[in-house]
Amino acid sequence: LLNLLVVNTSPSLANQIYIGTLDNGVFRSTDNGATFQPWRLAGLPVITMSLNADGSALYVITGEEPNGTLHRIHVNSGGTTTYSGNAFRFVDLHPTDANRGLLIDGSKLK
Fold first, then answer.
1. Residue 100 contacts by C-beta under 8 Å, 6 or more apart in sequence?
2. How far is residue 67's CA from residue 91's CA, in Å, rounded to a whole number?
3. Among 11, 22, 34, 103, whose Cα sits 20 to 30 Å from the Cα of 49?
4. Model confidence over 4-30: pLDDT tens digits?
5. Which residues pair with 27 in a beta bridge?
6. What is the pTM of this model?
7. Which residues are CB-neighbours of 101 under 8 A, at least 6 positions away?
């Protein structure tokens, strides 16, 4: 049984669904939710996550609030870039512009 936290669907690939869990990273479905498989960040608690507008990158904040770590996962390649040290708390991306979004860390708005 998973402790589900957040769900995101891909705007460009309607059959892909991403689920963040409170204790086991991100799971992905490629069959419109019929099945889910562990995908990235296994064992990490997901605080929040958001897909960019074109569905090419998933931004995930993991950890224990208020000391979250930001991960940018490239959806096609699965490559991950991790940003730490800023106590990230919230990420929300613009619905139509893949280059715009809101990122809040422990000290300021970015």
1. 93, 94
2. 14
3. 34
4. 666 777 666 778 888 888 888 999 998
5. 19, 38
6. 0.76
7. 50, 52, 59, 91, 92, 93, 94
**DSSP H helical segments within the chain, as ranges?**
none
Task: Give the length of the chain.
Answer: 110
* Long-range CB pairs of 18-23, under 8 A, 24+ apart, other chains included: 18/49, 18/51, 18/58, 20/46, 20/48, 20/49, 20/60, 21/45, 21/46, 22/46
How is residue 56 annotated by DSSP? S
Place of tokens 């204790």: 23
How many H helices and E strands in the chain?
Answer: 0, 10
Beta bridge partners of 74: 57
> Average pLDDT of 33-53?
88
Give the tens place of pLDDT for each residue, 71-94.
888 888 878 888 776 666 666 666
**Is 38 a residue whose pLDDT tops 70?**
yes
